[in-house]
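Input/output pair, single chain:
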Amino acid sequence: GPDGQIQQGSRGLSLFYLKIYEDGKLNGIKIQRLKEKLGTRPLPTAELLLDGARAHLISAEGKGIACIANMLNITRIHNTIFAVHHMRRIVDLARDYATKREAFGKPLKDHPLHMQTLARMEVQSQAAFLLAMELARLLGLEETKMATEQEKHMLRLLTPLTKLYTAKQVTLSLMP
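Output:
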C-alpha cells in the first residue's frame, strides 16, 4: 500500500514494467515453478521470484489489477474462441468419420447411440459458440461505454466461467 504495508488479496497490487535483461544480465528474475493450467499450454505461466529486480511503476499504487482487467478479459475470450473453434472442428471430424467407419455391418451414422453422442457434441459446440459471441457482444458494449451495470457484471461473471468451461470441454474432446 501507499504507506508501505502489505495488503491482503489483489487490492495492494500495482503494475510495473520490468526489463528481463538489465545491462546484459538477467534482471533479478528467478523461476520458482511452472504452473499447471488449461488453455494455452505452449505459453507457460510461471511463479517468479524478483530478487533485486529493477522495475518502473506504471499504475497508481494499488491499482494494478484495474489496469490489466480489460486485457485479462480479452485473453480469456481469445482462449474461449480458440476452444470453441476446436470443439467445432472435432464435431465436424467425428461426423465425417461416422459416414466412413463401419461397425457391426453398417456405418456409425446408422447407429442411434453414436448419433446421440454426436448430437450431444453438436449441442455443446453450438452452446459454447453462442456463449463466446455473447462475451464478444458484452465486451464491445463495455469498450464503447454503452454497457449497463448488469451487462458489466455479466461480462465479469461469464468471462472466466466460459473460458473454464470451453477449455475443459475441448480438453475432454481430445482425450482418447
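The chain has a mean pLDDT of 89. Helices lie at 64-100, 112-143, 149-174.
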